[in-house]
Design a protein that fits this description.
41% strand; 6-stranded antiparallel beta sheet; single chain
């Protein structure tokens, strides 16, 4: 048994038996689709070291167990945040889509003295 959902084949990803849906013969499961979308987003170039803060995945239809094409695009580019969109296509039809908001990783600044606030009972 293989240990991966997809085998790369040029520009396509060929689903293995692990990508098969347990509910409907000949279809892909949502976990495999979500993993492939996430992989595509992680491969998108970033202007700095970034971490995914939000990920939204939409599976638009039952997806055949067929070679799947992935494409990504940067929707918003910035120094601090980046929005990346990924799509999966089978036979030139979009079957799943994901949008990720990525934020720059940075050290939290050190505050020399915390604010001196009165206790709640004295206000």
């Amino acid at each position: 048994m293989t240990a991966h959902f997809y085998a790369p084949d040029g520009d396509a990803f060929v689903p293995t038996e692990l990508a098969a849906s347990p509910w409907e013969r000949g279809k892909q499961n949502g976990v495999a689709l979500g993993g492939l979308l996430t992989h595509l987003i992680e491969q998108a170039p970033a202007p700095a070291t970034m971490s995914t803060a939000r990920l939204t995945i939409d599976i638009l239809s039952a997806t055949d167990l067929a070679p799947t094409i992935g494409r990504t695009r940067i929707v918003r580019e910035g120094r601090r945040i980046q929005m990346v969109e990924a799509e999966l296509l089978i036979a030139r039809r979009v079957v799943a889509r994901a949008t990720a908001l990525r934020v720059r990783k940075a050290d939290t600044p050190v505050i020399a003295v915390p604010g001196d606030y009165p206790p709640p009972e004295t206000v």
